[in-house]
Design a protein that fits this description.
The complex is a heterodimer of chains A (221) and B (369).
Chain A lengths: L1 H30 L6 H13 L2 H12 L4 H9 L8 H25 L3 H9 L4 H29 L3 H6 L10 H11 L2 H33 L1
Helix pairs in contact in A: 1-5, 1-7, 2-5, 3-5, 5-7, 6-7, 7-10, 9-10
Chain B lengths: L3 E11 L2 E10 L2 E5 L6 H9 L6 E6 L2 E5 L4 E2 L7 E4 L11 H11 L9 H7 L15 H13 L5 E5 L7 H18 L3 E5 L2 H7 L2 E6 L2 E7 H4 L5 H4 L6 E10 L7 E5 L2 E5 L9 E7 L4 E3 L10 E13 L2 E7 L3 E6 L1 H7 L6 E6 L4 E3 L11
Parallel strand pairs in B: 3-9, 3-10, 7-8, 8-9
Antiparallel strand pairs in B: 1-2, 1-4, 4-5, 5-6, 10-11, 12-13, 12-15, 13-14, 15-21, 16-20, 17-18, 17-20, 18-19
Helix pairs in contact in B: 2-4, 4-5
The chains are: A mainly alpha (221), B alpha+beta (369).
């Protein structure tokens, strides 16, 4: 059981680390640069929330499999196969949790008064400096809250993971998958323990998330 | 007459509004004046680079900042304009000193002409140095915003209604600081305002905008009497604002003689010391014109003066008196015709002592380091 707990944290952490730069970049483009085609991008961002995770897993399998475009490239260039590894589980969790991180970060960045950023601009700061010294520090609580929300979603990821990473004990079997196996085999003791651990991690993370959001709301007011 | 430091030709269309302006701005303080919705702030933002025009050309100090023909567009952070927003837009996560240093630190060493310490002292915000900006009053915030913008040693200050969110007394104080910046540092200013009183008090030149078009431009004293203005100025209260020296404070009981032009006026509620300079204001509508000197009256000030010019202004008539400086008096058309007032005629201006508002009794002092 310990191995599945550690693996879950490893997978979720990797998924979150993949998502952080992407979510920040996409949010910045959407909120501050107001790029063209925002309506379409907005739908794409939210899509993983609406599509069944199993479908996402299947799509990833098509992409990453030996005959898929990404999988074939990885095979020839690096000689690796990511399907049915913990990396595939991390990618699946990343896709599924991406909307939660990005949408929260977008709200946080949107809450930063653009006149404050324009002031920095007129004082000689370029876009990168404004992001690092103004936008990110003023939105950091909301950004952290989004990251935590994405992390908890990754912890509970099942559908996409089981399709693209399989359910291999010690290699890709995260807590939800181990729990599923325990229920299937009638091991109630293990199932209850795993469920309790899931609830424990989720409660701590969600409490931190809510506390951060509350603080950022107070700061905005 | 000085050469122009900023020349612009800007066209910008919005769904419900279009801006189409051509102007040359000279050294000194220039007001962009007009009612709200006339495009003043849009024009200022085009100059600052915060809005891209559809077409045109903007040049400042011989440098082309924007040209639709050459496809040239200098980024706002490379334009060297100090921009001051209406509500200061200070950085809420930094204290006063860090706000002021933000742009200074980004300014190349060879371009730094104004030291932050000096600006803090000039604007009297030195004691606020370590304060968080959320604890500041409106006037303090605006002074920090001015210091922060000046700390980049800007080619020009762009001010977007910096007094609009301030109370009446604070406005007078900030006007004095702006005058002081102009006198001490020589920084040219482009100043957006919809208050004719502010423009009169501060600006050398005025550009009058109406519905996205420039309807008048030139020296303030000439432009603001332009008859085309009467339709533009949705006038609120027209005030005479001027700096006045305390000739005598009559023992400090709140009454003081103010030297205004070549007249001496008795004002109440003044607590500044003799010899100090204060900002004073008299509403143009609070002054009575009389053909004869009133014999027995409670009004403490009667000034004999010659009418300089008479102009219609909206539903009222504006009479300029020469008292060594210009005094605006607002009267009705009926009074004008009944008294047969005309330029060159001598009249008496009658002003109550408590109609003269002194905006910053006692503050600030007049010496600089």
């Amino acid at each position: 059981m310990l191995s599945s707990v550690l693996l879950t944290i490893q997978v979720s952490a990797a998924a979150t680390l993949i998502n952080i730069p992407l979510a920040l970049a996409v949010s910045w483009l959407m909120v501050k640069k107001r790029v063209r085609g925002r309506f379409v991008i907005d739908v794409l961002i939210a899509l993983p929330l609406a599509v069944p995770p199993v479908a996402i897993g299947y799509f990833l399998l098509l992409m990453l499999g030996r005959n898929g475009p990404v999988g074939a490239a990885l095979q020839t260039v690096l000689g690796i196969d990511v399907v049915f590894t913990w990396v595939a589980a991390a990618l699946a969790s990343a896709v599924v949790s991406f909307p939660l991180i990005t949408r929260t970060v977008m709200v946080a960045m949107g809450g930063v008064d653009s006149r404050i950023e324009m002031s920095a601009r007129s004082l000689g700061a370029g876009p990168w400096r404004i992001f690092l010294t103004i936008t990110a520090p003023l939105a950091y609580r909301g950004i952290l809250a989004g990251i935590l929300l994405g992390f908890v979603r990754a912890l509970s990821e099942f559908g996409a993971t089981v399709v693209v990473a399989g359910n291999i004990a010690g290699r890709t079997q995260t807590i939800p998958l181990a729990l599923f196996t325990s229920v299937q085999t009638g091991d109630d003791r293990a199932a209850l323990q795993l469920a309790a651990v899931s609830v424990g991690i989720a409660v701590v993370t969600l409490l931190t998330h809510n506390w951060l959001l509350e603080k950022s709301r107070l700061q905005a007011a | 007459m000085t050469a122009s430091i900023l020349s612009l030709r800007v066209r910008k269309s919005f769904p419900d509004f279009s801006l189409d302006c051509e102007a040359a701005v000279e050294d000194g303080v220039t007001a962009l004046f007009g009612p709200s919705g006339s495009g003043k702030t849009t024009l200022l933002n085009c100059i600052a680079g915060l809005i891209a025009p559809d077409e045109g050309r903007i040049e400042a100090l011989g440098r082309t900042l924007y040209s639709s023909e050459d496809g040239r567009k200098v980024a706002p952070d490379k334009r060297r304009f100090g921009y001051v927003f209406q509500d200061a837009a200070l950085f809420p996560h930094m204290n006063v000193w860090k706000n002021v240093l933000y742009g200074y630190n980004l300014t190349p060493k060879e371009d730094r002409r104004l030291e932050p310490e000096r600006l803090m002292e000039l604007l009297r915000i030195g004691p606020l140095r370590d304060r968080g900006v959320s604890t500041l009053s409106g006037g303090e915030r605006q002074r920090v915003a001015l210091a922060r913008a000046l700390a980049i040693s800007p080619d020009m200050l762009l001010l977007d209604e910096p007094l609009a969110s301030l109370d009446w007394e604070m406005r007078g104080l900030i006007i004095r600081y702006l005058k002081r910046i102009r006198a001490e540092l020589g920084t040219p200013m482009l100043y957006v305002s919809h208050s004719i009183s502010e423009v009169m008090a501060l600006a050398d030149d005025a550009i009058v905008l109406s519905r996205g078009r420039i309807v008048a431009q030139g020296p303030t004293s000439r432009v603001l009497v332009d008859p085309r203005l009467s339709g533009v100025a949705g006038l609120s209260t027209l005030e005479n604002m001027f700096e006045a020296e305390i000739a005598s404070n009559r023992g400090g009981e709140g009454l003081a003689d103010l030297k205004v032009g070549n007249a001496v006026l008795l004002a109440s509620n003044v607590y500044a010391a003799q010899g100090e300079t204060v900002m004073a204001s008299i509403r143009a509508g609070d002054i009575i014109l009389s053909l004869d000197a009133p014999l027995r009256t409670s009004a403490r000030n009667t000034i004999r003066a010659v009418i300089d010019e008479i102009h219609p202004l909206g539903q009222m008539v504006l009479v300029y008196l020469d008292i060594g400086t210009r005094l605006m008096v607002e009267i009705t058309p009926g009074a004008l015709s009944e008294l047969r007032l005309e330029p060159g005629r001598t009249v008496y201006a009658v002003i109550k002592a408590n109609s003269i508002m002194v905006m910053d009794p006692g503050e600030p002092q007049t010496h600089f380091s």
